[in-house]
Amino acid sequence: MSNERAQGLLLDRLINSPLQHASQSVFKDMTSYEALCKEAQKEPELFWSRLAQEHLQWDHPFSHVLDKSHAPFYRWFDDGALNASVNCLDRHLGTECEHKVAIHFETVDGKVTSVTYRTLYERVCQLANALKERGVEKGDRVLIYLPMGDEGVVAMLACARIGAIHVVVFAGFSAIALHERLQDTGAVAVITANVQCRSGRELPLKAGVDDAIALGGCEHVGTILVYERTATAWPRQEGRDFSYAELVSQQPTECAPVSVSAEHPLFILYTSGSTGKPKGVVHTTAGYLLWAKLTMLWSYDIQPSDVFWCTADIGWITGHTYVTYGPLAAGATQVIMEGVPLYPDASRVWKTIQRHAVTTFYTAPTLIRALIKAAAQEDVYAPESYDLSSLRLLSSVGEPIDATAWRWFYEHVGHGRCPYVDTFFQTETGGHVITPIPGVTPLVPGSCTLPLPGMDVVIVDEAGEPRPWGQGGLLVIASPWPAMARTLWRDDERYRQSYFPEELGGTLYLAGDGAVRDEDTGYFRITGRIDDVLNVSGHRLGTTEIESALSRLDHAVAEVAVVGQPDPSTGEAVCAFVVLKKSDYGEEVARQIAQELRQQVARDISPIAKPKFIRFGSNLPKTRSGKVMRRLLRSFAQGEKEAQDISTLEDPSVLDHFSVIY
Ligand code: ATP
Ligand code: MG
């Protein structure tokens, strides 16, 4: 390794950011973190049972903790009964939380509505009553297709209140994707809006539901409830379609909650579709809710004075756990933003933090990269132009964050004062899995550090044998945990095969991501999805590692994705798709940057990892949740015509720009 590289690595090491206002924190130091990990390891059932009793409000206490008799279909706190909406709302009434703001909702035109816990409770009860009036019962599926806003949160909790299973579908999805989810779940009702306001336009939403239903086989949908976001008219079918004003506004503001078993499904949520056809992940009530609340306390040290802002849409697991269930179960105040954070421009993010005095900012690497690109263009987009002194914690999720972007966020947004909580988790895990404890775990840029207590994370080889530190392998979770997915909707077999493969012995939960533990610290680093590992001349290379090296050329590079391409001499060749910070570059500049990029990789990793093919374009293909779709780039690089599931792709035209190879 070159000296320069070794020095870079040293600089990248261990940053200890003290956490402000941490007097109430669960963890005082690494010793208390380790003690809790030990407790979980020694007596897992006692550990989880203690936490479930302490943190959830039960209608009926549980006496069994874990039922393994049908593993890998585990059951937790099986004979206990509770209601998720009670744990998020009723529980706070009569406490100092009752009149506290639960949600500051900011519309695209900058209008702010602040909803207290009391008001939220009443709105949820009204909607729950309306659903009941339409005959929706416990166990029925209700599909939610709403723009990002407080109404979506109300809809989720209203379902939970009557024991209906919600299926939130991101409002950017097409009628075809919606149809697939309607059919798969057999939803009896849809909650939608007449339109959604995004990027300066009004887009019809209710019409999309009609188009989906028109595709056939959706006779089970008996009710469509339409929230009127604007005065724009919408197509109506009498007897099936109702406006909020008609059906909801007149309802009583009290609705008795339906007490459900701990194992009653709370929701079905389809994964992002980064690696293939989306999977309908099923989460149940108690275990999921417990982890949503605990991780708010552990990963975010959430305090009564905090203002939490998670930019995720409720259409994704991050929105479920860290917009709806986590913050509300923890009694937090949060910000919810309509539309996209970058519209009308990047300054909206900084203005929002400033306006609401946000303390905890949780976002995705894709947004961070876009913010970096914008900040380089004009001062009004730079975080330095705003007062962000309220921030005490920064966090991201969704993709690996490279050390360069990590540092920018940490230094330019957090001014080196705010711990950076890189959270690794998945739809299937319900909540955070590997995450630093803020103010406690020393940080390493680009590493999600260590598992939370109770998460038995191990790296194994292809036969399920543990790998030593320093050697990459498959990330698995070796013991069940309460927030784990229970199955894929009506597809137990696919669940078993996808997550508990026989090759690994059938008992390890396979995350589908590669990882390596640092030789000195034991910290975890996610090296990319298993499907994305490249094999160049017999060397296994993680896409993330090569991408991180390319991103270090940060004066030029805004975003990059690496895939493998079959090659006659090396088996596979590295192909890099690069988006530059400046769009007005010529042939000559492109050639020069391509050369610099190759040198960078040769220096940082090895000449073997140098991209053989470099392509420049203006945007990478992403899922609607903002993740790079490498599977698509892979088939594009191979010159294959698209034959994949692209229902979750944001903009199919972006690939056209990458045709020239350098
Ligand atoms: P699909 O399963 O349909 O391909 P998806 O995996 O993108 O979609 P999600 O469940 O939303 O759907 O995303 C989880 C995945 O996101 C993880 O498996 C991992 O690949 C990636 N990820 C999430 N957080 C991090 C992180 N902090 N660091 C690295 N990767 C992350
Ligand atoms: Mg996945």
Report what the structure shows.
With 662 residues, the chain is of the alpha/beta class. It is 30% helix and 21% strand. The protein has 18 helices and 30 strands. α2 (30-42) packs across α3, α7 crosses α8 and α10 (285-298) crosses α11 (317-329). Mean pLDDT is 93; it is low at 1-11. Bound molecules: adenosine-5'-triphosphate (ATP) and magnesium ion (MG). Residues 271, 275, 426, 512 line the site of magnesium ion. This is Acetate--CoA ligase.
Describe the structure using short key phrases.
662 residues, eight-stranded mixed β-sheet, 18 helices, 30 strands, acetylation, ATP-binding, ligase
Quick summary:
With 662 residues, the protein is α/β, with parallel strands linked by helices. Helix content is 30%, strand content 21%.
Please describe the topology of this protein:
Layout: H1 3-11, H2 30-42, H3 44-55, E1 66-67, E2 75-76, E3 81-82, H4 84-88, E4 101-106, E5 112-116, H5 117-133, E6 141-145, H6 150-162, E7 165-168, H7 175-185, E8 189-193, E9 195-198, E10 201-204, H8 206-214, E11 223-227, E12 241-243, H9 244-247, E13 260-261, E14 265-270, E15 280-284, H10 285-298, E16 307-310, H11 317-329, E17 333-337, H12 347-356, E18 360-363, H13 365-377, E19 393-396, H14 403-413, E20 420-422, E21 457-460, E22 473-477, E23 487-488, H15 492-499, E24 509-517, E25 524-529, E26 534-536, E27 539-541, H16 543-551, E28 557-567, E29 571-580, H17 587-604, E30 613-617, H18 630-637
Parallel strand pairs: 4-17, 6-7, 6-8, 7-14, 8-11, 11-12, 16-17, 16-18, 18-19, 19-20, 29-30
Antiparallel strand pairs: 1-2, 3-13, 4-5, 9-10, 14-15, 15-23, 21-22, 22-24, 24-25, 26-27, 28-29
Magnesium ion (MG) binds next to loops.
